[in-house]
Amino acid sequence: MATLQLKSLSMHYSAKDKALSDVSLEVNAGEIVGLIGPSGAGKSTLIRCINRLNNPTGGQVLFKQQDLTNISGSRLRQARRKIAMIFQEYALIERLTVMENVLSGRLGYVSFMSSLLRKFPGKDVQQAYALLDRVGLLEHANKRVDALSGGQRQRVGIARALAQNPELLLIDEPTAALDPRTARQVMRLISEICAEQGLPAIINIHDVNLAKLFVQRIVGLQQGKVVFDGSPAQLNDDVLTLIYGEEDWQQSESNEEDTPEPQVTLLKASA
Fold first, then answer.
1. pTM of the model
2. What CATH class does 4-253 carry?
3. Which is deepest, 98, 143, 241, 269, by most CB within 10 Å?
4. Where is the composition biased (Acidic residues) (predicted)?
């Protein structure tokens, strides 16, 4: 049985503004699905509808066979515990330490007073240390988040999401603000962790080449509709044109591969 099933999911802001229309797909345990498509295609809306940050106007979101579209209150909060989200802009509390931000992933499991005082069970603290070690940030545990680089902040976001002990990861453009090398490192880390834990993930990603490298399945959206669902190997020029529109895709790829390294001239300092 699939971990997540979307059945005819729709999100209409008005009769003319249809962010999503009749989207149906399934995500299985351990499967990493990349969402691609032009700006405004509905990628972020789709992710936000799954965990009900946006309320769909039609269809169903079945998570572990529970329909999330018809629950609210405590039942919705309990379901969200198992659906962790990693944001493009990190969504961290900058004035708090790395450790405190990771532990915030446990807020759904502790009392209001404990969360207010930032008091967590010892097992949660030990888990947070283990997660920071896994993402390569153990030595930064007590450093304020606003002292970290963009790549390090994204790793904190990954560790915080994993602290929820999720059964599904939703990831919204995790590499958009990162340089190419750091972007690869973050995507590699996500794919490795998902493989280790058998954790399914849906990643909204704007970089098609990164998607080809690190996801097992690609779903292409165009104007709120699924127009492609297949493996990275099937993402040929015709499919890219269907998703994004006309472009010389071979020439684009050739330019990316053949672009020479910029020449740097070092100037001797004046005496």
1. 0.86
2. alpha beta
3. 98
4. 248-260
